Amino acid sequence: MSAKEMFNSGSENSSNAEERAYAREDLIFNTTEDLLLMIEDLNLTKVELAKRLGKSKSYVTQVLSGSRNMTLGSFSDICFALGFKPEIKIPVKESTSNGNGWAKAEAKTVVTTKLETSRKIYLAHDESWANCKVA
């Protein structure tokens, strides 16, 4: 069950901020839950994991409870301490092609102030993503 399903009956419309908050909580919950299941399957204690990481038991407890922010670096360290390579999959929206297998692209000029140079970067463009904010 997702965080959204637990706290929202489904009849209400959620704002963008609420959607982001639900997605964040789902990610934290699912990631920490998967790591805890892996730790349990390996019959590993948090003390042993802390030793492998060179961290305190309280650090491990905080990260795995979701009360402490888990960075990609700490996630990777925990995965390697558990004996597997971390993998993150980001869904990519399929773009429409122009018939020859290539997506329609628009040239953008990027100016870097440090180097004072410019270059063109070709980006696939999808009108439905035009108003989306990106990181």
How would you explain this protein's 3D organization?
There is one protein chain. This protein is of the alpha+beta class and 135 residues long. The protein has a domain of 80 residues: Orthogonal Bundle (434 Repressor (Amino-terminal Domain)). The protein has five helices and two strands. The chain has a two-stranded antiparallel ribbon. Helix 3 crosses helix 4. The two termini are 28 Å apart. About 9% of the residues have low confidence.
| CATH homologous superfamily placement of one domain | lambda repressor-like DNA-binding domains
Distance between the termini: 28 Å
Taken as a percent bin, the fraction of beta residues is 5-15%
Structural class: alpha+beta
Instruction: Describe the sheet with the most strands.
Output: 2 strands, antiparallel
Uncertain regions: pLDDT < 50 for 5+ in a row? 115-126
Query: pLDDT average, as an integer?
Result: 77
Shape: extended
Overall radius of gyration: 21 Å
Range of helix content: 40-55%
The sequence of SSEs as H and E is: HHHHHEE
Tell me the number of helical segments per DSSP (H or I, 4 or more residues long): 5
**Which topology of one domain does CATH recognise?**
434 Repressor (Amino-terminal Domain)
Number of strands: 2
Under CATH at level 1, the class of one domain stands as: Mainly Alpha
